[in-house]
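Methods: example folding runs. The two proteins below were folded one after another, and each record is reproduced exactly as written to the output file, sequence line first and structure-token line second.
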Amino acid sequence: MTDRKLDIFRVLDNIDRRQYDFYDSLDEDEKKAFVPFIITRWMSGATDQGGLHSYYLHVTNELVNKHLWQLSDHPELIWKMMASCGAGKTKRHQWIKGPSRKSKSKVDEMLKTLFPSANTTEIRIVRSQLDEKTFQSLLQAYAIPEKEEKDLLKEFRKELK
């Protein structure tokens, strides 16, 4: 495991207390470890203590997120924008998990190859009309090799559960 170059809780504490000069106090390794995107995910997730969850979520979005990518070459300015979001006293923050990525279904991928002009919604409609027997008939009608057919049927059964 590698050593952390910049402690996220120290960063959040300095944001909470509006320490505008904190970025200037960092050494070169810490400045390299300063990743605004990660920090904003943490800072916008203040636990709800007197309505501060809504406050942090709103000000982080309005003051930092809207300009984050355009100002990526100016980390000191991004820091000052982050510090301006602080509530004046230390709060507990938690990581806000991003949206989960759904793994691609092998069955959907097969249907997409069989019906290349169909969009995702149309594939879902076709899927909803299939049971195991009709799916097997479809695979046989398109001369899908036997081993691949067995694998797809197994996957189809698993996805039905």
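Second run, written to the same file directly after the first:
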Amino acid sequence: MSRVSDQVHTVRRIVVFFDICSSTTILEDLLRTENQRRWRNLLIGLKKFLVSESQQSPFDIYKFLGDGWILLFDPSRITGPQLMRLLKRLCDEYARLFHNGICEVLGGDGYQIGLTFGIDSGTLVKIVMNQRDEYVGRALNVAARLQGAIKQKDKTPAGKLLISKNSFAALSLAQTPRYSGKLVDRLLRNVAGGEHYQVQKIVICK
């Protein structure tokens, strides 16, 4: 007889994987100049923003990855344009935090400042490990690979996202000219069929 904990619990989610563009370069400079607290404050500011937004447009702040997050959305509770507007607000908040807390201590120009996004959707297996919810599924891997592939053939990736074709269609983004995007070909490593993976590229903020 199987226990409740042995049962497979699946959920369908939109996975948004986002990262701070060129954060390694920025963090190196901050650490070298002993301004680590400024970077910490920026990350805390982003977290507070996400918590506030999640209370208005419910989503799960699933995991923090050092300089980015994985967000999980219930597709029955958010539309494509609503999701895009949320990501635009997130970009704007990052720009505000960066301008107010980081710019003055960085010497010179040349920083690719902004956020980059990868989006996929699908069924995830939900499990409990160490008393917290964890998820396993292809959509997590694809979203992460899409975010990492934004810099391919693009010297100014900040403020842009790659979204899988099935997610683009499911969110009806083609019906909104502002988010209709452009079909591009990218290499996604460690993804089945990823040698020439066609995705939609959308500019969230310029």
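Comment on the second run: The first helix runs from residue 23 to 32.
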